Amino acid sequence: MVVQDSVDAPGVPLEPFLHQVGGHLSVMKYDEHTVCKPLISQEQRFYESLPLAMKRFTPQYKGTITVHLRKDSRGRLSLVANPLTENRGPFTVSTESAAVAIWQTLQQTTGGGALPLAQWQHPQRAHSLKESPATALLRSELRLKAQVPSLVEDANGNPTEKGSFNPWGLHCHRAHLTRLCAEYPENKRHRFLLLENVVSQYKHPCILDLKMGTRQHGDDASEEKKARHMRKCAQSTSARLGMRLCGMQVYQTDKKHFLCKDKYYGRKLSVEGFRQALYQFLHDGTRFRMELLEPIQHQLQALLLVIRSQSSYRFYSSSLLIIYDGQETPQTPHGTNVIKVDVRMIDFAHTTYKGSWNEHTTYDGPDPGYIFGLENLIQILQGIHKGQ
């Protein structure tokens, strides 16, 4: 399904998606149940030809939309979408939302733009920067703990819940705006994919983002990119386990905020360190969430059966999300807790399969690297389960 844009309708300011824990492309919040990300044709084609068996393990595809960069009178940059013309109620964005307030405050700390003008005037110069102000502000956990509380205020200056967002999404958003400013005119139209917000039903979504497989480069990668990705895999748990941690947020009930880890943390983990990180993902700061192990393993086993049945697919550089709610569910009248967990595959820009457009190589059988990673993940969770 491809949704047409409404030319005459007012623009919808896109908010940074504050629960993005990994990846490098900016994911934006369109509404409570929908996120959008820059369109890559190979990923769009994957969603449009998605095998039925995989649909329960991927976000719902909702079409595409046009987005453009806009600068307000104060020099603040934002991405604006033409709203959908489907027959759904009018969509409004609260300018007092936490996402907007946080992003505007961050912009003001660096002079109102994604980067000072001198730094993003020229694309080559922007790409050559070792570290942007956004990276310097957001990447360090120690600095983050000191700075974030003063930034998390709504439009009226009232503090919102401390630690209610993940800094990685803001980092990606800043980097994306920087690139758009450097390479494209302000009124340039960009196409975005519209996808289901898979964490919308969770009050405090705990998210683990795993980069799956033993190989991360696509068939179309240059020799330089291929070598770089092979080096990352060899130096991380990707080679040993068929997966590596790409991002994580875990709600800590004792401190009332998220514990966040990024891809740089994940790249340094040993096999034992990965196991400990997985344990930490299931610990809420007060206790280990033992009740989550069985439903997560059950869904992973179901996904493993699906992947084994998909001949010719190679999910290079895709991620697997494991999601649960950091707020425990109340007991039912029968005295049991309703446990909700989700396992979702995302990021298919380098996925290839028989019949895909512009395929460089046709593969036989299911994806061995992905299967290797899933089997190891299940085995590690089983080990944690037995040790409890």
Give a description of the structure.
It holds the Pfam family IPK. Keywords: ATP-binding, Kinase, Nucleotide-binding, Transferase. With 388 residues, this protein is an alpha+beta fold. It has 2 domains: 185 residues, no CATH class; 183 residues, Inositol polyphosphate kinase (D-amino Acid Aminotransferase, Chain A, domain 1, 2-Layer Sandwich), CATH 3.30.470.160. Helices cover 34% and strands 20% of the residues. It has 13 helices and 14 strands. The protein has a 7-stranded antiparallel beta sheet with strand order 1-6-5-7-4-3-2. Strands 10-9-8-12-13 form a 5-stranded antiparallel beta sheet. A hairpin with a 5-residue loop joins strand 5 and strand 6. The chain is globular and about 55 Å long. The N terminus is likely disordered.
